[in-house]
Amino acid sequence: MIVPVILSGGSGTRLWPLSRQLYPKQLLPLLGQETMLQQTLLRLKGVKDLAPPVIVCNEEHRFLVAEQLRRIDVAPAAILLEPAGRNTAPAVALAAARTLAAEKGQAAPVAEFVEKPDGATAESYVESGDYYWNSGMFMFRASRYVDELRKYRPEIVTACVQSLGQAKEDLEFVRVDAESFEACPADSIDYAVMENTDSAWVVPLDAGWSDVGSWTSLHDASDHDAEGNVLVGDAVVEDTRNCYVYASDRLVAAVGLEDCVVVETKDAVLVAPRSRGQDVKRLVDRMKAEGRNETALHREVFRPWGSYDSIDYGDRFQVKRITVKPGAQLSLQMHHHRAEHWIVVQGTAKVTRGEETFLMGENQSTYIPMGTVHRLENPGKVPLHLIEVQSGTYLGEDDIVRYEDTYGRS
């Protein structure tokens, strides 16, 4: 029985501003209607002798991952939550420690495994025709992977086994022990095991594979028009060739461009030559160093209960459009520094305000004073849409004191 292990912990910074720290590329529908995570799982449909998959993801992405699996009717064996990114070797070690698997197939022994060769070496490999390129897809017995990792990086095995041994079941997630896992060294499976083992075999594969890791590779993997352009959304171009133009919320018009990337989202616009796509990561690193939250969050932020979109803000106020899924509820909470006004636009809201609990319908509103314990719920069968106006001296998302939460958030 083969257990598919899907590593879904990356950040995809080279695809900013679409891909962001809290909503990375694997959770976005970049090539079709399904997200890259969903497409990966759908490729397993119909394959015989497969066990339910094990998903390893960042703790901050857990509800997005679970929701995307539900939408394609995939029930995983486990969703393992990484409290911190430690690269692929520990991630695979967690999955291996959780599940044992076996594999069969035709293959040839690996003479040498070189991870990320320098430019000159890579060119020599390609020109010789004697090398295969690593796709990043591995198959092994879980016990054998752990044995090899213990041989070369025993401290990784120790940390992962300890963190998994102290894990806690949380809804459909497996929350590994944060202190143990954060003590684990960061390393990739390629450096930690594959460059060292003398037991690796390779299977040639011609599947047109791309990890869509940059705007150039996304352009190459997408459908083009007669001029080589990829146009997504409300994009209009004139005398423009070989460009990737993405319009999220507004008309994007381009004239006289060639080999460029133009990406518009609700809160950011990227313009760059396609040949400089790899440098977007440097741009994101610079913005992180400057403390800009556009690297982590989209303007519309998704939560397990729904989403909110910050449509306007200024000194001492912020306006959000909030959507609550049917049957969902926000945490029972309180704010020290802000008051809130709620206006129902569509649906029915159940409001807890202090000792009161009452229903509100369309065009009705209420006021939540600063320091008042409150909760918002959707008791109906259709999505609840409302406008929230915040006012106060501090409007950050960390001004939330939670007393009770359906989704296990602290």
Q: Would you give an account of this structure?
A:
- With 410 residues, the protein is α/β, with parallel strands linked by helices.
- The protein is 22% helix and 28% strand.
- The chain contains 10 helices and 24 strands.
- It has helices at 36-42, 62-71, 88-98, 119-128, 142-152, 154-165, 178-182, 189-194, 215-221, 280-289; strands spanning 5-8, 54-58, 78-82, 108-109, 168-170, 173-175, 201-202, 230-232, 235-238, 244-247, 252-255, 260-264, 269-273, 300-303, 306-314, 317-324, 332-334, 338-346, 349-353, 356-360, 365-368, 374-377, 384-392, 401-404.
- A 6-stranded antiparallel β-sheet has the order 14-15-16-23-18-21, with no helix packed on it. Strands 1-2-3-6-5 form a 5-stranded mixed β-sheet, sandwiched between helices.
- The longest helix has 12 residues, at 154-165.
- The radius of gyration is 24 Å and the shape is globular.
How do the strands and helices of this protein lay out in sequence?
Elements: E1 5-8, H1 36-42, E2 54-58, H2 62-71, E3 78-82, H3 88-98, E4 108-109, H4 119-128, H5 142-152, H6 154-165, E5 168-170, E6 173-175, H7 178-182, H8 189-194, E7 201-202, H9 215-221, E8 230-232, E9 235-238, E10 244-247, E11 252-255, E12 260-264, E13 269-273, H10 280-289, E14 300-303, E15 306-314, E16 317-324, E17 332-334, E18 338-346, E19 349-353, E20 356-360, E21 365-368, E22 374-377, E23 384-392, E24 401-404
Overall pLDDT: 91
Strands, count: 24
Identify the overall geometry.
globular
Uncertain segments of ≥5 residues (pLDDT<50)?
none
Rg calc: 24 Å
Oligomeric composition of the shown chains: single chain
Helical element count? 10
**Main beta sheet:** 6 strands, antiparallel
Helix content: 10-25%
